[in-house]
Amino acid sequence: MIIDFHSHIYPEKIAAKAVASTEAFYTIPAQGRGTPEDLTRAGRRAGIDRFVVFSAAAVPAQVQSINSYIASVCANREPGAGGGQEQGAAGEPAFTGFGTLHPGMENPGEEVDRIIDLGLRGVKFHPDMQKFTIDDPRMMGIYSLLERRLPVLFHTGDYRYRYSHPARLAPVLDAFPGLTVIAAHFGGWSLFDLALEYFHRRRCYFDLSSSIPYLGHRRAEELIRIYGAERILFGSDYPIWDPGECLGEFRKLRLSSAEQERILSGTALEILAPGV
Ligand SMILES: [Zn+2]
User: Fold this and answer.
1) pLDDT (0 to 100) of residue 20
2) What distance in angstroms lies between residue 124's CA and the mean position of ligand 1's atoms?
3) How much distance in Å is there from the Cα of 83 to the middle of ligand 1?
4) Angstrom distance (rounded) from CA 48 to CA 244
5) Domain of 256: which CATH number?
6) Which pLDDT belongs to residue 81?
7) 127 pLDDT above the threshold of 90
8) Domain count, the chain
9) DSSP strand E in 69-207: where?
10) Which of 25, 56, 191, 196 is 20 to 30 Å from 72 at the Cα level?
11) How many separate helices (H) and strands (E) can be counted in the chain?
C-alpha cells in the first residue's frame, strides 16, 4: 500500500492562480494542475492508494470555506467508501483531508470541533505562507485544542524566513507532549542538516516531500537512518512535484523492504489510526 501524505488541492476555478502563486513563492515550475481530478489521474498512473490532501488559509476569512471544500472533496473518497478496500469509491485513490486554521481566527475552538465533525483527520499549517511563527503566542491555545485530538502537519524550513524555522517548532514539541506533529520536508526545507540538530532527540514525525531532489540519494538515505524509518512518511508536495516521479525517486534509495513499507504506508497508518 502506498500513501502520499503531502498534497495540495484547490477548487477548479482558482487552481491555476493558486498554483501560479506557489510557483512564484518557491521559484519552481509546478508539475501538476492542483485539482482533485488531476491528482486522481496522477495517483492512478503512479499506483498510489491514498493521498492526504489540504490547502492553507492565507487569512482567517478563508478558513471555513477551505475546510468545507476539502471535506466535500474527501466525501466518499475515504478508505472503505468503496466497500472496505483501502482505495476510495470506484477504485480511485482515496483522499484523506486535513483542515486549516489561522492564528487570527476569532473562535478556533468551534472550528476545531467542525473540522472533526466534517471528518477531516488532521490540520496542516504553512507558517511561511500564513505568516505566523510556529511559536506565536496565539498558536498555543490552538495547539492545546489539537493535542490528543488531531495530528498537525507543519511546513518547516525556509532559508528566507523565520516563521517555520526548526528553532520555532522545538519549544512547541517540548510544551505539548500530547501533540502529534509531522514536520514536513525532513523538518526543514533548505535547512535539512540544521533541522537535524533540533529534532534528532525530539518526538515528531517527518515527511520527505520536496527533499530528495535537494538532498541527493545518499544524504536522504543517511537522514532516514539517523531519524529512523519509523518516523518518516512518503509525500510528494503535489502539485509542485508529480507523485509518480517522487515515488520513482524514492524507490532508488537503498532501503530495506521493511523500511520502504514503513515509509510508504506504515507510519501514515499509525498516525491516522483512530484515537491518535
Ligand atoms: Zn505543503
Assistant:
1) 92
2) 8
3) 30
4) 8
5) 3.20.20.140
6) 52
7) yes
8) 1
9) 94-97, 123-125, 152-154, 181-183, 205-207
10) 25
11) 12, 8
